[in-house]
Design brief:
17% strand; Rossmann fold; alpha/beta; disordered N terminus; 8-stranded parallel beta sheet; 8 helices
């Protein structure tokens, strides 16, 4: 029987100098990277966040550039007139950081195997014995709605990234409609996925409101409590977009 651990232990569970986050669009990689970055920084660590997301145009770590700078976190992403550009513009800086950078390095890699190819282009600079390569799972997103689909996605990402996946993060949610039961059901599916892949589930993730409804002894792994940082550019407009080809906002 797994012994429950304290929520604060999530930072101990992700203690590797380099943490790479991959997964399908909508899994929550960017929010997790930003929250972890701010959390590690609050604990006195030097932090760099690498934005290798070449898949989604609106939800990227680079949107939080000012907040990261204000907290002393280095953001490796295109800047200035190239702020919305993709690879290969930042690859030399990424390679240098992986090989020579100090402190904590968090990498937000674009969703699915297509995005993971960006990681594959710098995979030779990754030192696996100091790296966690983690897939973020949200079972309410297309292509990862079942354990079988999640297993296939992990294997496809490994092939595209040219790096073995070392663990999973469970982040099943429905944005503002998320309940503690949804988090726990997603965690159960993540654990089944992990069992098939012989990988650990290193942490579960929940927003601040949902986390208050989760008893600490209900989870067999650490819990990362998310503060929402990234918001789509159309949110808050007079005619707020509710449904579209890419987003579902509640």
């Amino acid at each position: 029987m797994t012994t429950p651990v304290r929520r604060s232990d999530v930072y101990d569970a992700l203690a590797a100098p380099v943490v790479i986050l991959v997964g399908h669009f909508g899994s929550g990689k960017s929010e997790i990277a930003l929250n972890l970055g701010l959390g590690f920084r609050a604990r006195g660590e030097k932090v760099s966040i690498v934005d290798l997301d070449v898949v989604k145009p609106y939800f990227r770590c680079r949107q939080a550039r000012e907040e990261l700078q204000a907290n002393g976190i280095r953001l490796v992403a295109p800047e200035g007139e190239n702020a919305h550009a993709d690879l290969p513009i930042v690859l030399p800086a990424v390679r240098h950081l992986l090989q020579h950078g100090g402190g904590k390095v968090l990498m937000d890699v674009g969703g699915d195997p297509v995005g993971a190819r960006a990681l594959g282009s710098v995979s030779d600079a990754v030192v696996m014995d100091r790296t966690e390569h983690l897939v973020v799972l949200n079972f309410f997103r297309p292509y990862t709605e079942t354990v079988g689909e999640a297993v296939e996605m992990v294997r496809a990402i490994e092939a595209a990234a040219r790096l073995p996946v070392t663990g999973l993060l469970s982040n099943t949610h429905l944005m503002s409609e998320t309940t503690p039961e949804i988090v726990l059901d997603g965690l159960t599916m993540a654990e089944e996925t992990a069992g098939r892949l012989r990988l650990p589930v290193l942490a579960a993730v929940a927003d601040e409101t949902t986390a208050r409804g989760l008893a600490e002894d209900a989870l067999p792994c650490p819990l990362l409590v998310l503060k929402r940082i990234i918001r789509p550019p159309f949110e808050g407009s007079r005619q707020q977009r509710k449904v579209g080809p890419l987003f579902v906002l509640n």
